[in-house]
Amino acid sequence: MKLRILIADDHEVVRRGLCTLLQSHEGWEICGEANNGRAAVEMATQLKPDVVILDIGMPNLNGLAATRQLVQQDPKCKVIVLTITDSDQVIREALDAGARGFVLKSDAARDLVAAVEALQRNRMFFTPRVNDMVLAGFLNRGHNGAATSTAPRLPQLTPREREVIQLLAEGKSSKEVASVLNLSTKTAETHRSNIMRKLGFHSIRDLVVYAVKNNIIQVQLPAESVVPRDDSAA
Amino acid sequence: MSIRILIVDDHPVVRHGLKTLIGEHPGWEVVAEAADGLEAVEMADKLSPDVVVLDVSMPRMHGLEACRRIRQNDPNCEILIVTQHDSLQMMEEALLCGARGYVVKSNAARDLLAAVDAVSKHKNFTARKPEQVSDAN
Hints:
The structure holds 2 protein chains of 2 kinds.
Chain A: E1 3-8, H1 12-23, E2 28-34, H2 37-47, E3 51-55, H3 63-73, E4 78-83, H4 88-97, E5 101-104, H5 108-120, H6 128-144, H7 159-169, H8 174-181, H9 185-199, H10 204-213
Parallel strand pairs in A: 1-2, 1-3, 3-4, 4-5
Chain B: E1 3-8, H1 12-23, E2 28-34, H2 37-47, E3 51-54, H3 63-73, E4 78-83, H4 88-96, E5 101-104, H5 108-120, E6 125-126
Parallel strand pairs in B: 1-2, 1-3, 3-4, 4-5, 5-6
Helix pairs in contact in B: 2-3
């Protein structure tokens, strides 16, 4: 029986690359492709894939929130997150969300097959940096009896509130948020008020900054500066 | 018509995707892949491809600098920029550097084949409306 893999990335050209990479492996098949986290959750519920590969930076519902939902629905769900950065915070959130694999996008061609193989054998797959961080956390607990992370604690937001933050930060109105999440506009507005109160924010601008800083949305950096037009450089 | 294509992107998985898309067109051949701008210039010199599909943000040498050098070395070689930057400023800059086409990565699956076809015939290709593009080329 083939290992069934669901892929989610908002760039079709990346999905094509991932498909080519994974389909060449005997015994594996791509059972579905999604272009955002919400579609990935819906497809996973329907298709019951063995492994889900999720990009983190996706519209509508990011890969971390999608991972959280998938693992909540099925604690045995095997998720590999693809990321452009292995910052401490992203690693921590991916582990916290329940991801069993963590692969840098730049290394996907090298690491992704190994990651899927590891999950197939009910093991985990992390980059060396993630392994170091997990080990450091374990050792900290060993010495002190509790984790000694100095990372600032984020306000307790519910998964639903995180979803609402992403949609608001992407520019959606409360009415649009309600439509995406199948809520009444009043409920969406209540979520919005609760979020602003919990985070102590007074404007959507604050919320967008928070969403970017906390990897809830990823933004494209401004176009790089113009290259010099000095012909002698050639 | 046979077209020889060089693919340049620092992410191998994106190169895989671009190669798969291009491979769907009969007669087109991906002659090589490069992972940065400097390697692209060297490979273009060596292989004389008809079209270079070129990313912008890359290590060692920026894609637009690579574009300028490739065009300087071989004015017959056409450059198609494929980038994540959905920016008019970047597109104008690319055209000034000698690129013939500009495709945003999120639309690559939709636009790539038409863009390669156009630039290989020395025609401009931009997904934006013509009036949005200044007369840069």
